Amino acid sequence: MKALLFNGSPRKGNTCAALDALKKGMENIGDLEIQEVMAADVSVSPCMACDLCDSDGHCVFEDDTNDVVDAVLAADIIVFATPVYWWGMTAQLKVIIDKFYSRSKRLKDLKKKVGVLVIGEAGQDDPQYELIPKQFACICDYLGWEMAFSKTYTAAAVDDLANSGETIKEIGELWKAF
User: Fold this and answer.
1) This model's pTM is above 0.90
2) What is the pLDDT, as a whole number, of residue 174?
3) With 90 as the cut, is the pLDDT of residue 172 above it?
4) What is the reported pLDDT for 109?
5) When you count CB atoms within 10 A of the terminal residue's CB, does the N or C end of the chain come out lower?
6) Domain range holding 99?
7) Bridge partners, residue 5, by sequence
8) What is the pLDDT of residues 42-77, one digit of tens each?
9) Please, are residues 10 and 33 in contact by the beta-carbon 8 Å criterion?
10) φ and ψ of 122, to 5 deg
């Protein structure tokens, strides 16, 4: 089995701590290969809606798009982790997801399980904790993927999650949803 973890954060902080805890828990899944993509470290051009990908299923840009989407196709488990930027996921993660369009026909109805981690500074009653998970739910519905979990956490300082043993333990147990 293969797991692909998307880290939407451009810095090392709460999103990294959450993914580290999840990865540690995922060690309990036998024979699992884990690949992490740091969205800020890949070069993915925004989709220009040229539709040239419709002819051969590949993005025409000579960047990391095709490699990233190949990894999505190969994965059985996909986790999207993002801090909140202006009530949404980070631009670094969104540009990657937009490029799924280049293979949307091939991505549809594949047996994939998806996890979503959203970390924001606002309290849990803020609309951001509805908007972002809903967007991922819509993506899963469209592609026919199973949403295994969607969790939101409040963390303001860069090390809030790492210093919260209870929250880190909870995140470490999310692997059971797969």
Assistant:
1) yes
2) 96
3) yes
4) 87
5) N
6) 2-177
7) 36, 79
8) 999 999 989 998 878 789 999 999 999 999 999 999
9) no
10) -70, 165
Percent of the chain as helix, strand, coil, to the nearest 5: 40, 20, 35
Residues 6+ apart with CB under 8 A from 17: 159, 161, 162, 168
- CATH number of the domain that 87 lies in? 3.40.50.360
Token pair of 110 as six digits: 């594949």
Residues 6+ apart with CB under 8 A from 2: 32, 33, 34, 35, 74, 75, 76, 77
Count of structural domains within the chain: 1
Burial classification of residue 165, based on how many CB atoms lie within 10 Å of its CB (0-12 exposed, 13-18 middle, 19 or more buried): exposed
Amino acid 169 reads K
Asked if the model's pLDDT at residue 22 lies above 90, the reply is: yes
